[in-house]
């Protein structure tokens, strides 16, 4: 996995026939494009817009960028560079902001990927499940971007959303290590609004989903598969724990490639998706 790999679109990030000639090519400009065509499910009050229930239910099930772009065209047939009124936007999750940003970065020549982990800037003292984008700099290092919070309504977060500090967003591997090593309480990782959706099992699932995203399978936040990305507590062997520790320690492209090939980690074609709107369903993924 090199610059070429992270510059190539996946079945999830592929924008199809999108005309990119009018798009900016820098990460900042593209993050602003994304921010101006999407509204997060929780942004209605911030933006003074009552989001229709059917959009809350249906938009966030759009697994592919082509679906996101189709919805945007249906609501207003205009270039992506034109900011939209709330009712003209795609209603998504943090994952959708990240995926569209990654798609546009790749389309304009910047290696990028979706990252799963936990943000500390939503609820004091809590690590909220969250997804951001990450792009590779010319020197080979990676920079985190949060297009979702790139809006005045979020106020002053104390950092630049276009360069998110890694102690404000913990990628899933860092979260796993912190919890395993006793530096953090697993009970503070997950969803603040739902006490059942937090804990070490949640961190484990995030760790495996993040690996899948790094390997080119950009899941929905509520996807899962057995044995290591399942829902709820399971009995883990010493071998399982060692494998998960290896995922948390994976930094090189070679490490990611090797771990993505592990049968106990790799997403199968038939996975489970536990959608907040539609409940537990079986979903068939594209061949990968």
Describe this structure in words.
- The chain has 288 residues and is an alpha+beta fold.
- It has one domain.
- It has ten helices and ten strands.
- The strands form three sheets. Strands 3, 4, 5, 6 and 7 form a five-stranded mixed sheet that branches.
- Strand 3 (112-119) and strand 4 form a beta hairpin.
- Helix 2 (27-37) packs across helix 6 (94-107), helix 7 (172-180) packs antiparallel against helix 8 (200-214) and helix 7 (172-180) crosses helix 9.
- The longest helix has 15 residues, at 200-214.
- The mean pLDDT is 94.
How many E-type strands?
Answer: 10
Question: What does the largest sheet look like?
Answer: 5 strands, mixed
Gyration radius, in Å: 18 Å
Intertermini distance: 15 Å
Low-confidence segments: none
For the record, the count of structural domains works out to 1
Following the backbone from N to C, one meets helices and strands in this order, namely HHEHHHEHEEEEHEHEHHEE
**Beta-strand percentage?**
15-25%
The number of helical segments is: 10
- What do the pLDDT scores average to? 94
Structural class: alpha+beta
In helices, the fraction of residues equals 25-40%
* Shape by Cα distribution: globular
Summary keywords:
288 residues; alpha+beta; five-stranded mixed sheet; three-stranded antiparallel sheet; Papain-like_cys_pep_sf; Transglutaminase-like; Transglutaminase-like domain-containing protein
Question: Secondary-structure blueprint of this entry?
Answer:
Blueprint lengths: L2 H5 L19 H11 E3 L3 H4 L5 H6 L6 H11 L14 E3 L1 H14 L4 E8 L7 E10 L5 E4 L23 E3 H9 L8 E2 L9 H15 L8 E2 L13 H12 L3 H8 L9 E6 L3 E6 L4
Parallel strand pairs: 1-2, 4-7
Antiparallel strand pairs: 3-4, 3-6, 4-5, 8-9, 9-10
Helix pairs in contact: 2-6, 7-8, 7-9
């Amino acid at each position: 996995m090199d610059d070429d790999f992270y510059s190539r679109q996946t079945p999830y990030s592929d924008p199809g026939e999108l005309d990119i000639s009018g798009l900016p090519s820098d990460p900042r400009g593209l993050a602003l494009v994304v921010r101006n065509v999407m509204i997060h499910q929780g942004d209605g009050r911030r933006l003074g817009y009552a989001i229709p229930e059917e959009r809350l239910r249906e938009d966030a099930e759009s697994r592919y960028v082509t679906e996101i772009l189709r919805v945007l065209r249906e609501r207003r047939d205009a270039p992506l560079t034109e900011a939209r009124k709330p009712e003209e936007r795609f209603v998504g999750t943090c994952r959708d902001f990240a995926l569209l940003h990654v798609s546009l970065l790749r389309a304009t020549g910047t290696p990028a990927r979706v990252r799963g982990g936990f943000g500390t800037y939503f609820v004091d003292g809590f690590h909220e499940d969250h997804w951001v984008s990450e792009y590779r700099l010319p020197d080979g290092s990676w920079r985190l971007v949060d297009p979702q919070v790139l809006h005045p309504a979020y106020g002053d977060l104390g950092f630049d959303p276009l360069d998110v500090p890694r102690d404000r967003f913990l990628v899933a591997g860092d979260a796993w290590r912190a919890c395993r090593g006793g530096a953090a309480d697993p009970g503070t990782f997950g969803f603040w609004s739902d006490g059942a959706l937090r804990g070490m099992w949640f961190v484990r699932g995030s760790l495996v989903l993040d690996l899948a995203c790094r390997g080119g399978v950009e899941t929905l936040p509520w996807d899962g598969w057995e044995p290591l990305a399942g829902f709820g507590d399971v009995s883990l062997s010493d071998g399982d724990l060692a494998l998960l520790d290896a995922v948390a320690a994976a930094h090189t492209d070679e490490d990611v490639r090797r771990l993505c090939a592990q049968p106990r980690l790799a997403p199968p074609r038939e996975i489970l998706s536990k959608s907040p709107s539609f409940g537990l369903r079986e979903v068939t993924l594209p061949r990968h």
